Amino acid sequence: MSKSGSKLWGGRFSETTDAFVETFTASVEFDQRLYRHDIAGSVAHAQMLKKIGVLTTDECDQICNGLAQIQTEVEQGKFDWSVGLEDVHMNIEARLTELLGDAGKKLHTGRSRNDQVATDIRLYLRDEIDSLLAELSRLQSGLLDLAEREANTLMPGFTHLQVAQPISFGHHMLAWFEMLVRDAERLEDCRKRVNVMPLGSAALAGTSYPLDREYSAELLGFERPCNNSLDGVSDRDFAIEFCAAGALIMTHLSRMAEELVLWTSAQFNFIELPDRFCTGSSIMPQKKNPDVPELVRGKSGRVNGNLIALLTLMKGQPLAYNKDNQEDKEPLFDTVDTLRGSLRAFADMIPAIQTRKENMLNAAKQGFSTATDLADYLVRKGTPFRDAHEVVGKAVQACSQKGCDLADLSLTELQHFSKVITEDVYDVLTIEGSVASRNHLGGTAPQQVLEQVKKQRQLFKRV
Length: 463
Ligand code: ARG
What we know:
By secondary structure, the chain is mainly alpha-helical. It is 62% helix and 5% strand.
């Protein structure tokens, strides 16, 4: 009989599974990536069974050695995955029995694939969250370094994508940094709920063996065993939460990507990305396209899709386990892979950004970005704000007609708009003066940017 004809659950069946149904219901093609966590879960389960006297020491040792051998086989590409054995769990268990005979058959005592798979995904996701957090903090360090390097690089700040007020480029980088601080917090928070152990829930109702679930949880590094077996096998909230956190990370990367795309365009020409992060066009020889940011921006769509897929997957499910749940894996894995790739690309790319300081400064000078500073100057000289607003509006209109900036007007010309204006007005009309004056917590003055960088580096060190 072929492997597919000898199902681990075949006892009550009198005909073999339809060939198409076998492929249709199998998950091994994608869940084999859980092999390491499946093995870790099985080792802990076997050790717990030994502790409560269900397995002998010898059986437990045989099982652990057999599982170690299987792990090596998988890692060396020698493991023969079979669709007929449906999923990663039964592939590994069948191989264990092939290796050990009866001892292998005892591993599944007091366990179901339902609590097994729920445990495996949590173990897997916990590892992935840790490595995503590491990648996220690499990107954050890169942003802090860039913010420090470019604290004195001045650019126009925008609202409505219209020049608004001059800002420090470093300040802009710190805004990106803050988005990622929240992202890291969300992942860390989600990890707490991932780190609860379903193992021991068995199929849905628990088991008649006196399992020591605290012990298995300790062996696997879980915070605690779950409190309810029905919830244990059926809860996928943690995967949804992770995808939601992932969707926000991608949203942030996508917004950053959009700015990088704009800034590298000939129209802005604010920054340069090194050639190794760009590609050319097969027809237009002059092109250097910002493919990496564009692709990350595009990939945010699939992560949003994965989140919706999981929410929809869960919404109509009665307790407890349903086969629907097998559909949780691909969206989850795709989210992990997309995040890993996108964060890596950004973490590699950010430190390599070259700024075109002259162009940014010139852009900041256009669009009357110091108009608010002139209004504030008039207020300091005793003009009520609304009048000051009106006066500056008039001055801007005159400059528009002349085709010059506010700072290009002579003192006499400026005094034509308001008598209180004196020579010191030019201190606030310059881009440097404007930026330097916003010198309070959260403001754009280079001094504040440098202080923030220092503070954030300290906070970073503490975690
Ligand atoms: N491959 C299944 C999944 O991914 C494992 C659990 C199967 N359990 C069952 N009762 N059919 O969810």
